[in-house]
Amino acid sequence: MEAKIRKAKKEDKQKIERWNRELFSISFPGEKYKKKLLRGRLFVLELNKNIAGFLLLKSGGNISKIFVEKKHRGRGFGKMLMDFAMNYFKKLKKVRLTVTASNKPAIKLYKKSGFKIKRYVMEKNTK
Asked: Residue 28: is its pLDDT beyond 60?
């Protein structure tokens, strides 16, 4: 299986949008997606010419989103995306990311990549 990471293209938008809505309950409106493409910080994981995940990097060493399609998890593609992100930010002193406490597989990946928990954010539903 041929795997590579490349910059996202306009034609990737629909699939990335669907994943964003399903997982993160957000979407990139057309202009916002276009800006991310132009800034060159939105990347996709391509397996045999089909996208199977994506990576969104922000300035200042922030890994904003990292996602691998469920059917491709557990095969090293998350690590591949993480390694790509770390190489992208190699000149910086620190790289940051945020993860929900319930996302145990992601936390495991981040810890394996050398990340350490630095703070906790707590919430309470009011209704």
From this structure: no
